[in-house]
Amino acid sequence: GQIGRPGAGVWPMRGQNNVQGNCDMGGMAEFYPGYKRASDPASIEFFKAAWKADDLPLGPGLTSTEMTEAALQGSLKAMYLIGEDPVTCDANINKTKAALEKLDFLIVQEIFMTPTAMLADLVLPAAAWAEKDGSYTSMERRVQWIDQAVPPVGDAREGLWIINEIGKRLGLELGGSSAAEILKEINRLVPQYGGMTQERISQVGGLRWPCPDEKHPGTAILHQERFSTLDGKARIANVQNKPAGELTSLEYPMLLSTGRIVVQYNSGSMTRRSPSLQERDGELYVEIHPQDASELNVKHGDMVKVKTIRGETEARARITEKVKPGMVFMPFHWQGTNIITSDALDPVAKIPEYKMAACRIETMA
Question: pLDDT class for 7, splitting at 50, 70, 90?
């Protein structure tokens, strides 16, 4: 009864401000733009005609975690990473680092020299968000336009320019020299965005898709009358609970969970360059319950080692009742945390178990 009503419904709590837009445009392994199934030959024919392409791959493609495995096995030879720092953010980053080092060629397009960029054969300096035009789609499907505020710094270039230049050097004319031109292509090829012109989404508040034509006001609430299925009925999945891929033991008796903190963002490549944010939370820490700290002879502020079967890291102890006895918490914005996180995957989305790993805490002399 909570679907199709104001202030209710189901929202994916996205980690960044344009993840929804990336998914809408085919940034998932199983889709082409507009959620056309990559495994459907009709999708292939549609985009071959739209893009005047001789051939396009039938999907699904590989998820990022599957790419890591493919690189380790030697079946994936090259990788082009845009705005991603897996050497900091992936679970079990030593495995990720080994996979990237095994590639024949690694390109990283970034705004800063991240740990991943340091492994690259080629680094392409990219423009940051305020240095380019474009649109953002929020988790509520709200599409809004932003205009360039300042020019790119130094040798940095807009991502669109970089991709077009690479295309030209590969003998491909990809088309679309500006974000405005790309938006017009989206209007033609993605029905949900059909009426989202630059003028309309530049207005305060933008528009929410689906917005199929220029007279459509946008859709504030989904599924008010029916679901997006042939018969209009929802498909409710029956999911069986499964134990974590890693359970506590005598050797690793504590449960490690990880998560975000307010003043750091993802890999920290941007936020750790802010002195004011670093003053507030600039060091990796581990939260430990007072009962466990007493048994371990750990005091607030001590440096400790946190170990799992994948490795170990050092962190500052914070004694707090925010965590339960037998459990510890670490923020995942530091490389140190993801040395030890579990890379066990869920079978559908292929997402690692960042929230669950068996560990032990050791004092440092």
Answer: confident
Q: In the chain, what percentage of residues exceed pLDDT 90? A: 82
Q: Which fold has domain 254-363?
A: Barwin-like endoglucanases (2.40.40)
What mean pLDDT comes out for the span 238-257? 90
Kind plus residue range of the DSSP H or E element containing 331 = strand 327-331
Query: Which of these, 267, 344, 341, lies nearest to 93 by C-alpha position?
Result: 341
DSSP codes, 241-257? ----SS---SSS-EEEE
Give the C-alpha separation, 324 to 308, whole Å: 19
Q: Are 320 and 284 in contact (CB under 8 A)?
A: no
CA distances from 7 to 17, 107, 139, 221, 274 (A): 20, 43, 14, 9, 35
The reply to whether 19-61+126-208 and 254-363 are identical in fold is: no
- Given a cut of 90, whether residue 345 has pLDDT beyond it is no
Class of domain 19-61+126-208: alpha beta
